[in-house]
């Protein structure tokens, strides 16, 4: 009975619900930092970290061509700024330039040399020198993506179903094992999910009230999703199919009843 009354007070207070959501998001960030430190390197990370470092230091996208560069650039820029250097890995990048068909496979060999041979003295607090420290440094900035995913889930559910719905959605995301285990890895899955969900949220809000800010957010989220994963092109196509301007007659009626700063949009198919 006491618990039920406390939950009722929490859901009845916007400030209390916001504080609860902020605490949960903070706890998720702490968990992901622990994941960064405790998990050994995964298969794809070797290629992604090395490729991202080569993008930053050489200014060309040669290695790991099967994925767009955003996540790799974030990881590569971080370790480059902290002092990681290339030596024995360099000839492999030159070989990839000469043989583009082999660039995907060579990205793993380049990453292995960069992580395990070229920087044995590289140090980051809380990690062993060398490869472990490089992987830890590359992962740390990516903690933002699982937090973003949880935040968007909370915001969208709250907009649709109120504070209770928002907190329930937040709880489901932060306890989902795939998010907890993969959230801070140098891979494309969680960043793609975060930007994809943000695109859906922005599109839903755009269709419902037509404000320009949601159109801008939709463009940013879709652009970021496309910079993370090539398959996001299907997300962009579906968003374009969904967000269609309504016919002129109906648009005139909508503008008459809507604020002047809003633009009316509809999810209905356009007339043939």
General description of the model:
The protein is an all-alpha fold. It folds into two domains: 43-141, no CATH class; 143-266, no CATH class. Helices cover 70% and strands 1% of the residues. The chain contains 13 helices and two strands. It has helices at 2-12, 14-38, 43-58, 70-81, 90-98, 103-116, 131-139, 144-174, 177-182, 189-209, 212-226, 232-242, 248-257; strands spanning 244-245, 265-266. It has a two-stranded antiparallel ribbon. α3 packs across α4, α3 crosses α6 (103-116) and α4 packs across α7. The chain is flat, with a radius of gyration of 22 Å. The chain starts with a helix and ends in a 6-residue tail after the last strand. Mean pLDDT is 86; it is low at 246-272.
Q: Which strand order do you get reading across the main beta sheet? A: 1-2
| Structural domain tally | 2
Instruction: Pick out the low-confidence regions.
Output: 246-272
Q: What overall form do the CA principal axes indicate?
A: flat
Give the helix tally. 13
**Largest sheet composition:** 2 strands, antiparallel
> What is the typical, i.e. mean, pLDDT?
86
How would you spell out the order of helices and strands? HHHHHHHHHHHHEHE
- Beta strand count: 2
Instruction: From the alpha carbons, calculate the radius of gyration and give it in angstroms.
Output: 22 Å
The fraction of residues in strands falls at under 5%
Distance from N terminus to C terminus (CA atoms, Å) equals: 58 Å
The helical percent reads 55-70%
SS class = mainly alpha
């Amino acid at each position: 009975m006491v618990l039920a009354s406390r939950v009722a007070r929490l859901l009845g207070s916007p400030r209390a619900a916001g504080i609860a959501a902020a605490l949960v998001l903070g706890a998720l960030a702490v968990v992901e930092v622990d994941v960064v430190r405790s998990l050994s390197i995964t298969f794809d990370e070797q290629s992604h970290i090395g490729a991202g470092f080569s993008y930053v230091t050489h200014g060309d996208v040669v290695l790991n061509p099967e994925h767009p560069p955003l996540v790799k650039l974030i990881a590569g820029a971080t370790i480059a700024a902290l002092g990681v250097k290339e030596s024995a890995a360099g000839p492999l990048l030159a070989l990839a330039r000469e043989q583009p068909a082999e660039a995907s496979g060579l990205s793993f060999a380049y990453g292995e040399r960069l992580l395990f041979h070229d920087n044995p003295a590289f140090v980051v607090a809380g990690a062993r020198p060398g490869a472990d420290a490089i992987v830890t440094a590359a992962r740390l900035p990516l903690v933002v993506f699982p937090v973003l995913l949880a935040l968007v889930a909370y915001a969208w559910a709250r907009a649709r179903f109120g504070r209770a719905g928002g907190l329930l959605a937040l709880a489901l995301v932060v306890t989902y094992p795939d998010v907890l285990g993969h959230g801070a890895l140098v891979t494309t899955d969680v960043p793609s999910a975060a930007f994809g969900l943000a695109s859906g949220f922005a599109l839903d809000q755009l269709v419902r009230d037509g404000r320009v800010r949601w159109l801008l957010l939709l463009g940013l989220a879709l652009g970021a999703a496309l910079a993370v994963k090539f398959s996001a092109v299907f997300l962009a196509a579906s968003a374009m199919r969904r967000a269609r301007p309504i016919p002129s007659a109906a648009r005139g009626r909508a503008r008459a009843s809507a604020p002047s700063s809003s633009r009316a949009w509809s999810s209905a198919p356009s007339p043939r």
